[in-house]
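[Meeting: bench + compute handoff]

Bench side (C.D.) handed over the final construct sequence. Compute side (W.E.) agreed to return the predicted structure before the next meeting so the bench team could plan truncations. Sequence as handed over:
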Amino acid sequence: MISIIRRWAWTLSVCLTAFLSSNSAHGQQQTIAFSSVDSPNANWYIAKEKQLYKKYGLYVELIYIPSSTTTVAAVVAGSVAVGNISGGATANAAVGGANVVVVGCFINTLPYELIVHESIRSAQQLKGKSIGISRVGSSSDVAARVLLKELKLEPDKDVAILQVGGSTERAVAFRTGRIAAFPSPPGTIHLAQGMPHRVLISTADFPKGFAFPYVCPTTSKSYLKSNRDAMKRLLMALIEATHFYKTHKEESKKIFAKYSRQNNEAYLESAYQSSSKLFEQVPLVNREGMDAQVKEAVARKPGSTLKVDDIVDDSLVLELEKEGFISRIYKP
């Protein structure tokens, strides 16, 4: 009789442990933020629309915080567990003392083109005019400065850089004449209906491309240390959402239209075509691109000793690759 009771108690203990472990694994709650409604960020909200966060045991509150610079501030403050933050914003925050870390990167280039009024046919004609960006320190700010330097123009001196807002707001400011140019993810110009324009330069035209950690899940070092399993599950959801985006064009465009609040087919198609090619299957951080951002941030903070390895830990991505998760997701 005693042995039966012991066996029953042992079985109950095992079941209770399994139940609690299941609740722990599948009951993680996170507030996460994406920083743009543009198509390169689509995997974040596709994961929500397709219930992928829940599939991997996460109860996620997904919020929109315009620009990486604002998002990284929310991560540092602890109001957001994980944010979609560019490498430039992360490097600038880390140089300022923030204990932030990038755990992966889904797009490792800056897909921007410089849209100008049709009357502007050369770099010299852009002098004395204004370019619109979302916020200082954002990806659009980085893009504006990189594109201007490629044109042999000095940002802020030759061309004023104005904070205007997201892609839609920049298109409106362009159409109304508030700005003469703006850096744009491919496709956004279709929103500037009726406004004559031209693409003066694109990062796609750069001889060596432009390595830049653009769409990167980023968190605090303390959160990563305490929540590695949750972070791994989050990456799994985003990886599957990326695969969905690449393989379900029309449904992805519908979700993109919902979040961008745009139904312009030319815009949706152009944005989809450009970004679908850029998403990484294995979302590791491009070290060359991150190194460039770290060096630029350090140059603005004399005495800083920040290095790439101080702000990058993509070991969870390597684990998922080694375990075969990514190859299973992408299996034909």
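W.E. noted at the follow-up: The chain has two domains: 2-109+212-329, 113-205. C.D. will use this when planning the next construct.
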